[in-house]
Amino acid sequence: MNANVLDKAPVPPSAPPSAEVQDEHKLVKRAQSGDMEAYDDLVRRYQERIYATIYHMTSNHEDANDLAQETFIKAYQALKSFKGDSSFFTWVYRIAVNKTINFLKQRKNKTHMSLNDLDFHAEHDPDLVALVSEKTPRREVGLAELQEKLNAALQKLSDVHRLVVTLHDVQGLSHEEISKIMDCNTGTVRSRLFYARQQLQAYLSDYLK
Amino acid sequence: MSSSPENFDQLRKLLTVKRHEQPPPGYFNHFSDKVVARIEVEGLKMRVSWWQRLFPELDAKPVLACAYGLVMMGLLAVGIGVSQSLDTQEASAPNPRNPWLAQTPTQISALPVGASLAQPLPGQNNSSVNAVIDNSGAPSFLFDVNRLEVKPASWNLR
Hints:
The complex is a heterodimer.
Chain A: H1 3-7, H2 18-32, H3 36-58, H4 61-77, H5 88-107, E1 117-118, H6 126-135, H7 139-156, H8 159-170, H9 175-182, H10 186-203
Helix pairs in contact in A: 2-3, 3-4, 3-5, 4-5, 5-9, 6-7, 8-10, 9-10
Chain B: H1 9-19, E1 21-22, H2 31-41, H3 50-60, H4 62-92, H5 99-102, H6 105-110, H7 113-116
């Protein structure tokens, strides 16, 4: 197998293409008429992205698991009121984001990280290899340490700044998509992203020299 | 390496670590099942009538929509055919006990007056309790005004 294929980081997900949107529209119609199989399909379609967004916001697998499930349950309860003004994808993201921010407000400063393991490809990611090999020859320890430092730095950001970095730099969403999810204009998204990156760069300066 | 505020390339590379963080293997295999199970356990499942369920099905499957249309047209044609044959039968065999249903307006006007309309009894004025239409040919379960007893009202004002 070609090593380059393995070394690639997972492709960041973004908004679904138009054919997928049409298919999604049919699934939503069926789900609105009580078809649980259709709703199950919708959950399968977005479960990874929703879970990942919440996980990156909380840095805790158990919290992300609970919140992701609650997001889809809440979405089901509100499905009748979904008029299709935005895509289902954006709508569910909004529910997830609101739920997560409310949860984080209640949790306040009681951050307890429960990080997921890095997948096999992380050790072979050329960008990460370059970053880690400069710090330590023992890559596994280096990556785990890097992961912890990065999550700790992200937790120092405010919720909205962490959300913008998560959606843009980790999830790969465009400024426009983020502005729809966060219900603000793209200028605000850009300025928040810039500020968040500046903050992160300062927190992680030891790893970015 | 540069760490100037405007150059975030290194930071973005570092953030790729986050993309490699994965939940335990097989975590997503049963995620949707758990969501659906919670919806059912918590009694949140939508109750929808059969016709509300039918239209999205038709929307999603054009073949089903065509079949539905053909069945409806067939039923309509059968209904029209049956009603026409019933009309023909009734016209050819009028009911002798009910001249109102079986006869045409011209035939009705040709009937003797006494046969269809009640006449005031000799020596009596027209009254609102007199029968306007002779209902002697009507079925017995219908309301019969002529058999009602009329009693004077009495008021006890104590």
